[in-house]
């Protein structure tokens, strides 16, 4: 993954000028690039192309970017794919919706190609560090497996979207330690990605819905911890 010659990027946008701009700059950096002008085509192409990165607009014909991201996150072969929203939508609810369906980053237009290349590189650097961590954590009645992004709870397999999994993994790796929302944003989304604090709350709620309420405790006025008690 560190060799850019092997990194594949899917550009999804209905504006030809933006697709051309992104394609030109990505290819200049050595990436292999495919494109789609709407969400439905993006899902079909992604299944065959299996990109490492997807650059995704929100406002598109036929199917918007948020629904497209949700469908992409359901494709098992794309569990490790980075999805970056590139959009003119700067409203808070649009950003929360994007991260809620599994986005790794959210960048508002106008696009600055050099800054975008830097953000993509930062995602790969952070992923490389994570790959050096333990692949499996056994804690309480959970087995948390980073290779498959699954949780075994008393013999039952639970699959979490990427960011929900990483949030649980991080807290379980540091049991009984309290982390603020800012701490979690830094460690899960990274310093290069601007994410609203509410996004952490949404992801915590979703993790609790899937594994139960008895693992992640809210420490009022401070943050969250994986509780061993």
Automatic annotation (TrEMBL):
GO biological process: regulation of DNA-templated transcription
A UniProt-annotated Pfam family: Trans_reg_C
SMART domains linked: REC, Trans_reg_C
Residue stretches making up the Response regulatory domain: 8-124
SUPFAM superfamilies referenced in this protein's UniProt entry, alphabetically: C-terminal effector domain of the bipartite response regulators, CheY-like
CDD domains referenced in this protein's UniProt entry, alphabetically: trans_reg_C
UniProt domain OmpR/PhoB-type: residue ranges: 134-228
Residue ranges flagged as DNA-binding region: 134-228
A Gene Ontology cellular-component term: protein-DNA complex
Positions bearing 4-aspartylphosphate: 57
One of the record's GO molecular function terms: transcription cis-regulatory region binding
Protein role: This protein is a positive regulator for the phosphate regulon. Transcription of this operon is positively regulated by PhoB and PhoR when phosphate is limited.
Record's protein name: Phosphate regulon transcriptional regulatory protein PhoB
Organism: Mariniradius saccharolyticus AK6
Lineage: Bacteria, Pseudomonadati, Bacteroidota, Cytophagia, Cytophagales
